[in-house]
Amino acid sequence: MDIKFNEKAPIYIQIMDYIKQNIISGKINPGDKLPSVREMSAFLKVNPNTLQRAYQELERENITYTQRGMGTFVKEDEEMIQVLKKDVAREVINSFVERMKNIGFTEKEIVNIVKERLEGEDK
Amino acid sequence: MDILLSTENLTKSYLGKKALNVVNIEIPKGKVVGILGPNGSGKTTLLKIIAGLLKPSSGKVLIDGKEPGVYTKSIVAYLPDTPFLYKWMKIKDSIDFYRDFYKDFDEEKAWELLKFMNLDPDSKVTSLSKGMAEKLNLTLTLSRKAKLYILDEPLGGVDPTTREKILDAIIQNYNEDSSMLITTHLVNDIERLFDEVLFIANGSIVLSGNAEELRLKEEKSIDELYREVFK
């Protein structure tokens, strides 16, 4: 587990993103228990209230649920995970396209260069 | 929300020079609050008044509903920024000393923390390096079951690995029933610990708020804000 904070943005959002990433990549599976707030705050060296907030927001977004006295678990909801994946994919693509445009590529050229890259990988 | 500490128009002057100028703060239970400001801004004066070591020139302080006195000293654990242990003491003597002095001192916890900090109970207090002394002082302070912890520059003059240990100890000892006030000018190392921050300059609060909301609003880290406010 590795996370680098960019302290310009709220830390709880970055913790949420970090947990989402781990769910998407399969490092955390549906039904898994998340580390306790205290464990996570000691590990990330972050205020426990900030972690509490991140966990609350994850629950509000229907990504996790809390079982009283047991902890916080990732929902066993394949659809939710697909939605998460798409959300992240959209962000990645948006930033990629923006950067390519910034260095002077047209949309057509971007499509071509991506194609070339992917076909090259196949071989 | 339960307010653990509040000040009302708190002012302290030394021979006409104002060290604190009409400070109003409210600190709820369960918060870690960073008090940030350059040297000579009034941080230590504020903490000393809260700890009951200085009397305000005017204004009021209430801790758990009481003015500083015998009761508040029993619920406030204060870590000063200057040495406070007797020179003849060994580390284990300092633990005895705290146990005798404070009813809320948890000796078991103190031994645990000493071990965590890699401190030898038989070392003499005067033989400790700056970082080791800081770790000992923090051990003693955090081993009290206080409602309010006041840590004056807990990271002053310690190396990065010691800093990590100190941050760990602070996080592991945080609990929802008590609050912590921490002063520092090493904002970068510790800003992730803060719920709330107070910026203090020339004895006045110039900016305050929830750390996450400030980041959101200003799109800056607390460290960057600090540099901006105090440039």
From TrEMBL, chain A:
This is HTH-type transcriptional repressor YtrA. Residues 9-77 form the HTH gntR-type domain. CDD domains: WHTH_GntR. Signal peptide: none annotated. It holds the Pfam family GntR. SUPFAM superfamilies: Winged helix' DNA-binding domain. Coiled coil: none annotated. It comes from the Bacteria. One of its GO terms (molecular function) is DNA binding. SMART domains: HTH_GNTR. Keywords: DNA-binding, Transcription, Transcription regulation.
TrEMBL record, chain B:
It is an enzyme of class 3 (hydrolase). One of its GO terms (molecular function) is ATP hydrolysis activity. Pfam families: ABC_tran. Residues 5-227 form the ABC transporter domain. The keyword Transport applies. Keywords: ATP-binding, Hydrolase, Nucleotide-binding, Transport. CDD domains: ABC_DR_subfamily_A (cd03230). SUPFAM superfamilies: P-loop containing nucleoside triphosphate hydrolases (SSF52540). Its EC number is 3.6.3.-. This is Putative ABC transporter ATP-binding protein YxlF. The gene is yxlF_1.
